[in-house]
Amino acid sequence: MLVTVSVLDQLSPDLSDEETSTVATMSTPPRSDASDQTAVSTRAPPYVVRPTRSLRYSPFSLNQTDLQPEANFALLSELASHFMYWVKTLNATRKLYCTEEYPLSFDGEEAITIIRTLLSDAYRSSFYRVIARSLLETSPPLFRPTHYSTRSIRKNKFYQSNKEIYTLTLPTDGTNKAALPHGVYYPLTACYSPRCQPGDASCYAPCCPNRIDKHLRAKSGRHSQSMYTDTSNQSLSLTSSHSIESTFSRTWTMTVPREILQSTPEPERLRQEAIYELIYTEEDYISDLRLLDELFGKPLQTAQCLPQERRAAFCEQVFSNYKEVLDGHRQFFQDLREYQALCQSVCGGVLDRIGNIILRHIPALGPLYRRYGPQFTLADFYVKKELRDNILFQNFIREQERQPEAHKLRLRDFLVRPVTRLQRLPLLLSAIVKHTSAHHLDTGDVASAIRLIQGIIKEMDEATDASSKKLRPLQIQDQLQAKPTSGGGGGGNSPDDGSKAIEALDLVNGGHSLVFEGDLIRRTPLMESITIHVFLFDHTLIMSKPKRAPGVTNNMPITDPVTDYNGFVLSKLPIPMDLLQLDQSSSPIDLNATMADNAGQNTDACMAPSSPTPNKQLTPDRTPLPAPRTTLYPITLSHLGRNGNQYTLFATSPQDQQKWTEKIAETKARWDAERNKHRVFQMRLLTDYTFGPALTAGSVLESIPFTGKDGLPMVLFSTASGIWIGSPDGTVVIQQVLALVNVVQINILHECSILFVLANGTLTAYALDHLDPRSPVVPPSFQRISSQGVQFFSCGVTSGHPLLITMKRKGMDSHFKAWDPVCGDLRDRKNYKHLHARSSFLSKPTWFKMRTAFYVGAPATSVMLLAARLAIVCERGFEIINLDALHSRVSLPDLENNAKLAFVQERTAVPLSMFKCGSGFLLCYDSFAIRVDGYGRYDAKAYDRIDWIGTPQKVAFFYPFVLATDPQLIEIRNVDTGELVQLITGKNMQGICTTPRIHCSMAHSHDPSYQFVFELTPADT
Prior knowledge:
single chain; 1021 residues; alpha+beta; 10-stranded mixed sheet; 4-stranded antiparallel sheet
């Protein structure tokens, strides 16, 4: 049931009678300029300070010109939720000394500042204290005093003081809205009478908030109540497991005889109080660690709320070495108490020295804290995650926290005690030094102990920083979600792909670190702006759509993504650093011009999110945020591979654009440098400014290495306009030796020193030595093998004999001819006679003799010469043919008798090449590669298959590696394990030679119109 509560009900005891009497004429703050004009004639009481205009607008509006619905702070749930948001924002930008223990803490001055900011400056400070005290006195309270606020705990009262520290008690994520206070605080409401104005005492409404005087007099003499309907007179739960009375009874003043107290000088008395405070707080600390052990540590080791297979690991992650810390402090406290008892019996309770005892125990306690402190950050995360995902664990923890001996403390309060205790020790010891004379024996020991403890704290903080770097990847891995439905764009973005990609990230166990994160903007085809939260790790880049935490509305600024976002939906597939390419960005775009060209679009949709990292401290104030920027600065990224795409994201400022560009470039450079240490192939330049523009040599199509007649290594290149020859070391300049048209394919039969050139459907054989640019023969000796219709050919050695295979297409069939060379090696003097035998257009070649002809009833794309047979690559797979037994053919793979190979037909893959691998074969398609045995049966002993990252056009084999060349990359994998061992990226990449050496080309990095031609050689050579 909602109730209205008068201001007098909330007046604090510190208001004077005069102030109370003046409240009778108090009015609500004015809500418009018009209301001020009406209220001018009404005299305002001294309790109210009237503003010139209303200040009660939403403090979260992103755009001053964009009118947002005004928050109604007369609704107590609205006031409480806004108060909690600003407390969370405040803690994201500054730290108190107890922030580690109480992450949502604030002092009394900050609470009043937040309430004053949310309401207006229309009231005196006592009015804000009334509201703050009412928020504290509900059950459960919105906030409570910490154990550092002894005055608030003792008086059960709110104080506007920066020395009184409070902390929120309700969850800030908004998951339990029912826990928020509900009610109406009518002094902040407007009268329902349309003509009633603030200060108008003649309103007919019986409960008009502008006639407070009547209601105040009616309620004078009643006890003050809470602002909420659910009120309680119960005392607040303490944030310490020990009462104030217990603490007071253990002070030095209360434990020594009166005569000793009177005879002790004031400095010594203060010194003894400081020593005793160290001792009894140590006792409290041990008691809290014992409760941690008895309530949580031991029970969880056997509790059924945790699965048995991960119970031990979870307890180790959460509790770490707390038992060792407890044992160490028990021994330390025992020595302190024994010395204290000795001094009480001998010296009447005056402790002469204590530093020597502390120094004796610091070496043993230091390593314990260096281990426990850094682990607490991760322990807190594991507990919160388990509480969220495991209802049984949640019930168990809540039940243990309700135990009377827990004094309403949470598990986190117990876990953080060792951290806060170590940080408090230097303060306690400094108080002892402060009241100890410089010549005292204990001064040096205590001072040394302070330095040692501060050193331990520094080391613990450094280790905690390193541990915190592990925390954020844990949070991201936990909050990342796959798309619920498939999306367009980058291809391969189905939910299954997204889930597999998230699992493959391995952010938790991979030892990876987060480099940078922040919000960028993605523009849709409809010119809408979507916020994309980008994570840049040292090994991948993740683009996601952030999900705001409950209570953080769309018009609220993002101050800290850790707290303001509670989930991230994978927008595109993660981009591995190997496949990430930072492209040259285009010029900035002007949103105003865009909107002018696209009338009717909503300019608010293009609003830019907050800067990736806040660079100045934020405090609750009513200053509107600056208007959104109208210029966006592009950052263009490319995801290489078959599932990749090009993405253009936008930063809101040139500084953010530069920062993102630098971070991505630096991370990519570090990754490439680290990967280069483990490369298996290296690039050796062949030529970089020979091939490229059509006016020069044109683009290189193929290359073949060979050895000149004098033993010099040479390379032969083919372009669409002819044949070029030179040496890889540059001693022989690459130059054109044959001018031809429409060259399609070249190859060399090394056993006969013959070059084959397929151009315009005609296959011609040339004497290789006659083309040597050092001693050319003009015209060179040649013979036409086939005058028309040849689609492709292949030459090599099979069954120990050189062989030439040609293919012509007839309908859907592929007709082959096998040719045996009869000219021998043309370098041999005894075969020089064949150099003068020329063939005319219609004559038969004399260098070769046709051996046999056969056909395959399917379109063939290439033929490969194996050791004793031929492998015909066609659309349906690989046909193995024995020239000596053409009737016996084997199809690879055996799809009819192996159901496990159904994916080969389902994926409509294109066969590329096959290679002899062990006792079987490696079959390479344009999307994957599989292994089969000699009979075509699927062999999945080592791995199921190799899924190519790109879409290779050529595949080369260099045991134990297979190299697949895609226009964007060359991926190198180990054929025995299927593992990716190296990636080489570039633009317009192509394999131009696969055997006996591996030659490739790509666009030149400095001048893309030229080709950078290189050879891949083993890195250890």
